[in-house]
């Protein structure tokens, strides 16, 4: 792994984060000037992975280049991800994990802990939740860049710390849900640009997980609502979950068949 | 025959193991009259202990509306159905069969070893709830029972019970003296801690037989399919070891919960709050004592609910318990000590092991005798002017 590799990784994560965020002037400028595609292709090329290269190519082909087309992306974005148009594709990790927000506060704490450990915090005007896609991507971008910097400095233990953190973060967080996120985007979106982008991020995360020896346990497909089987052909409004209790039925399966009342103490049974 | 003495049913009873009581027994009193089903307890347990994968369906603490709610669904009617009609004698001794007796098994013949294939506890009456049974923790919430009710129906103060009623039943593991989960486990993974009577499942020994899930009639042992282990309420033992009350007790908004040690009747200490309510005032009763487990969570029955329903749930002491509670509430001198203790309930995160009621206040002490709570017998009341001149506004609330 060369110093350049990390710079290119950092750039890809950064570009993906920018592109998945609510489209703004910064993105528009990057797209219209062509910097977005140039940098994306250059960095994907530098990472020497054919699949990644192909997927980056797809993104470049579908990226809007004139202001009108960028505007259209904005409305696509809102339809897919934005609350203003009831976008239903979630950009939050917890939405892909079992349980719900209130039962997953430990996950949020863990992610915030990662950010904090590297001295990062949300910009004052940013109220996003810690498990948001763009924050996670930007975090990896930051760590990748830091790796390159420490590498240049010859700071080996520093490099160790940041590479371990990237492995851990991919294994515990990003790597667990990106495959599900990509699937959702492929299934539910018709917008070629976002489909290509999700596929690119999936590959990037996959090769990085490999790179750092991370073995993320990908979340299972979202389990059906417990009431689903009682409600016939009612595809919307059939889910009664209030969103606070974890009423998801747990999957069964892999159950193996399994004088005094057994007593014990603090160390366990006697 | 392995006979043990179960004081809650007033007689000896058969049980898979010989009697062995821990040095101290984790115990609790819940005053149902005060529970508002805010589920703060449920969430405090959930966020502390069961937020992991495979635990989505677990509510070690749950609050259900009676008579129609239940988690797992129908746990109470299921087990009562299986036992069939049984009777209490007029002397308060239970004449029916417990879940350990109804299948007429001689527990002495039971081969106890830690062979997984030897289901020595399979004759404990019980059932394993279906997956769906765990999926609706709020089923039946706020659904009332009884007769219809007009908007102008007046319930006189001396009226026994309400024509239409429901009540909230908060439930945790009872850390039973004769724990069926431990009695049923083929590999002795479920055990009772000698120092505090908390019943735990040793995750290293658990072989996923789920016999504890089947045997616990309260539905408080739950299978975790992600870990392939059964899990249950741990009584918040790390806090209990520090002299504190469990999470679901400390966070209870209604202050309905008192944690402490409970003794068998012959060792009862009238200055111990749990012993006092259970054995002295007899205002707190066990949940389904007829099942035979000697559960250690005791309930002050709801006074607005018809006695017949409460009788099947809490046993023969219900009528007297309701009377005693009403008398304490009214302020009868005879029940002053109980009234003081009811004020003290839920007032501190420390375990009150001794208490005393003086002329002005009720005081709680921890295990070392330090004062951990003080509450006045009469709340001071202040009345303010209706008009707040300083802010040029009328006050809605003046007391
Ligand atoms: S926190 Fe207390 S009042 Fe609220 S539901 Fe639980 S037991 Fe009832
Ligand atoms: S309530 Fe159930 S799980 Fe708890 S000790 Fe009793 S039998 Fe075991
Ligand atoms: S005692 Fe602790 S573990 Fe048990 S239900 Fe209450 S909070 Fe949960």
TrEMBL record, chain A:
Span list, region Disordered: 217-270
Pfam families: Nitrate_red_del
Keyword Oxidoreductase set for record: no
Record keywords: Chaperone
Biased composition (Low complexity): 242-253
InterPro entries referenced in this protein's UniProt entry, alphabetically: DMSO/NO3_reduct_chaperone (IPR020945), TorD-like_sf (IPR036411), TorD/DmsD_chaperones (IPR050289)
Keyword Chaperone recorded: yes
Sequence intervals crossing the membrane: none
Protein name per the record: Dehydrogenase
Annotated organism of origin: Natronorubrum halalkaliphilum
Lineage: Archaea, Methanobacteriati, Methanobacteriota, Stenosarchaea group, Halobacteria
UniProtKB/TrEMBL annotation, chain B:
Subcellular location: Cell envelope
Ranges for domain 4Fe-4S ferredoxin-type: 26-55, 197-226
Coiled coil regions, renumbered to chain: none
Keywords: 4Fe-4S, Electron transport, Iron, Iron-sulfur, Metal-binding, Repeat, Transport
Keyword Lipid metabolism: no
One GO term describing the cellular component: membrane
InterPro entries assigned to the protein according to its UniProt record, in alphabetical order: 4Fe4S_Fe-S-bd (IPR017896)
Tagged with keyword Metal-binding: yes
Protein name: Dehydrogenase
Lineage: Archaea, Methanobacteriati, Methanobacteriota, Stenosarchaea group, Halobacteria
